Amino acid sequence: MSTELPPIVLVFGTEEQAANYDRWFRAKVQRSLENPGAGVPHDEVMTRMDAIIEEARRKRKSIV
């Protein structure tokens, strides 16, 4: 009979790999929270994303 592992261990293979990822992720989030930058306004992000999506659509149409 096998021991049931938590889902995160199944993704990473070992508890050590899962723990390493967890530490890395938490440190990355903490650095982001501590960043005093002003960020990018929502409307600007949406405008940039619309342009990226439209470019991808144009490229896809030219391939097909």
TrEMBL record:
<dbReference type="InterPro" id="IPR048851">
    <property type="entry name" value="PaaA2_dom"/>
</dbReference>
<protein>
    <recommendedName>
        <fullName>Stability determinant domain-containing protein</fullName>
    </recommendedName>
</protein>
<dbReference type="Pfam" id="PF21217">
    <property type="entry name" value="PaaA2"/>
</dbReference>
<feature type="domain" description="Stability determinant">
    <location>
        <begin position="16"/>
        <end position="47"/>
    </location>
</feature>
